[in-house]
Every structure is written in structure tokens, then in C-alpha cells.
């Protein structure tokens, strides 16, 4: 996957051999499994990366089968990882984590698209609505995926990695819709929804929650707490677009 994207790839069976083989230049990205790793081992590896030349810009991406669970995400974040991905990640997840456009998107040789504000033929009609959506999730790969889908619709996207950050954003720039994860460190999605509904500028605006497959109790609680709809991870672009169009009353 990485070699196909033009990266030079090296793999190691353990952290010690990886650190021993490191040169003076830090890698662009490090993918490491959290399945059997000890927190101090992870921290030592990350510190070695950060100390290398260019290491501050390296992406440290943890892999875990239970990547969406709060305990796993908190362990990775506290150790210094940039993000947590499923094991193995899909190719689009891999590319998004490295800041590359998904394969499903337009390629570099694609014909230039007319600007949505010109109302040119072939653009999404919803693009002319100039709607704004606030996307809140502590996993940057989820935010990136949703942002890509919404941007394709001509929607302006605001991002927040936690409830506290999102609260400050919508107080100063009220969005037309809130899309939020439910389980986040600090202020969770339930508390964020309560504040969103309690703010006069956003009290009537739609909320869509993002949750894992099979998390029915939280979804029911979210809908009873003021959410208008939900999206189940891993989400499909067509499902996201359909629900956003419907609740924003886009053509």
C-alpha cells in the first residue's frame, strides 16, 4: 500500500530493531501496532523518532483492531501518536492519514471543475447554498473523511477535535449543522449536543451523530438527547451525502 503510493518502506518485527536501524533522518510516517505493545515501549520509539532530524513533522500512526474504543485512542494519544487507525487500514484511510487525497477522488490529471459560486452546469446544486457544517471527532481520519465528502458537496467545513473546541467554534461561528462523535475526551458528544441545543443561534439546527456499528444504546440515547439522525462507522459517502442533504433541505 505504502510502496504503491511512492513511499520507500521498511518493516520491523519489534521496536528495538526499528530504533537500532534508524538513520539521522526521521521517516515521513511510522505505522505501529498497539496490539501487544507496552506504553513505555511506544513512548520510547516515538521519542526516538521525534529526536531525529525532521522528526517533529513525522506522522506516528497507531494500528489496533479496536481502534474506535476510547481506551485504545487515549492510550495512543497519551503516548504521543498522531492518530489511530484500524488494523489493517483501508487504502483510503491510509492515504487520508498521510494527507493524500482518497483514490475515489479526482486525480491530478482530472479536468478542472468550475467554481461552485458561478452556478456552472455540472456542479452540485447544494454548493450554491453556502452551508456550513461543524465536524467534531477526536480521530482526525474521521474528520478528514467527512470533510472530503462534504467539500465535494460545496459545503464549508469547520473542524474540532473535542467538545470544548467545538463549543467555542459554534458560539462565534454558528454552523448550519453539527456532525459529532459521541465518545471523546473532555466534553463528550452528549454534553456538546446539550449546549448546541441550548444556544439560541443553533437550537433549531440539525445534529447528526457518528457512532460505531452495534452501538445501539448510545444511538438511542443520542436521538433522545436531541440528535436528528446518525451515521454508522465505517460510513459510506452516499449515505453521508443523503442525510446531510435531507436535514439541510438541499436540492
TrEMBL record:
<feature type="region of interest" description="Disordered">
    <location>
        <begin position="96"/>
        <end position="127"/>
    </location>
</feature>
<feature type="domain" description="Response regulatory">
    <location>
        <begin position="132"/>
        <end position="248"/>
    </location>
</feature>
<dbReference type="InterPro" id="IPR001789">
    <property type="entry name" value="Sig_transdc_resp-reg_receiver"/>
</dbReference>
<dbReference type="Pfam" id="PF00072">
    <property type="entry name" value="Response_reg"/>
</dbReference>
<dbReference type="InterPro" id="IPR011006">
    <property type="entry name" value="CheY-like_superfamily"/>
</dbReference>
<dbReference type="GO" id="GO:0000160">
    <property type="term" value="P:phosphorelay signal transduction system"/>
</dbReference>
<protein>
    <submittedName>
        <fullName>Response regulator receiver protein</fullName>
    </submittedName>
</protein>
<dbReference type="InterPro" id="IPR050595">
    <property type="entry name" value="Bact_response_regulator"/>
</dbReference>
<keyword id="KW-0597">Phosphoprotein</keyword>
<feature type="modified residue" description="4-aspartylphosphate">
    <location>
        <position position="181"/>
    </location>
</feature>
Amino acid at each position: 500500500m505504502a510502496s504503491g503510493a511512492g513511499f520507500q518502506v521498511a518493516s520491523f518485527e519489534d521496536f528495538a530493531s526499528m530504533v537500532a536501524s534508524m538513520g539521522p533522518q526521521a521517516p515521513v510516517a511510522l505505522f505501529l501496532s498497539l496490539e501487544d505493545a507496552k506504553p513505555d515501549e511506544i513512548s520510547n520509539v516515538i521519542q526516538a523518532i521525534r529526536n531525529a532530524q525532521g522528526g517533529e513533522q513525522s506522522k506516528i500512526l497507531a494500528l489496533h483492531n479496536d481502534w474506535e474504543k476510547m481506551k485504545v485512542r487515549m492510550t495512543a494519544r497519551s503516548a504521543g501518536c498522531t492518530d489511530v487507525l484500524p488494523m489493517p487500514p483501508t487504502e483510503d484511510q491510509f492515504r487520508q492519514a498521510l494527507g493524500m487525497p482518497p483514490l475515489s477522488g479526482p486525480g491530478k490529471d482530472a479536468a478542472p471543475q468550475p467554481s461552485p459560486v458561478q452556478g456552472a452546469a455540472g456542479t452540485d446544486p447544494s454548493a450554491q447554498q453556502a452551508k456550513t457544517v461543524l465536524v467534531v471527532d477526536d480521530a482526525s481520519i474521521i474528520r478528514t473523511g467527512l470533510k472530503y465528502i462534504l467539500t465535494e458537496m460545496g459545503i464549508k467545513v469547520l473542524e474540532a477535535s473535542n467538545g470544548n473546541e467545538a463549543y467555542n467554534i459554534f458560539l462565534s461561528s454558528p454552523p448550519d449543522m453539527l456532525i459529532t462523535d459521541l465518545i471523546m475526551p473532555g466534553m463528550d458528544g452528549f454534553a456538546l449536543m446539550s449546549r448546541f441545543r441550548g444556544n439560541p443561534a443553533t437550537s433549531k439546527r440539525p445534529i447528526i451523530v457518528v457512532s460505531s456499528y452495534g452501538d445501539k444504546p448510545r444511538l438511542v440515547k443520542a436521538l433522545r438527547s436531541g440528535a436528528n439522525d446518525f451515521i454508522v462507522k465505517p460510513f459510506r459517502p452516499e449515505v453521508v451525502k443523503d442525510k446531510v442533504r435531507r436535514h439541510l433541505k438541499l436540492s
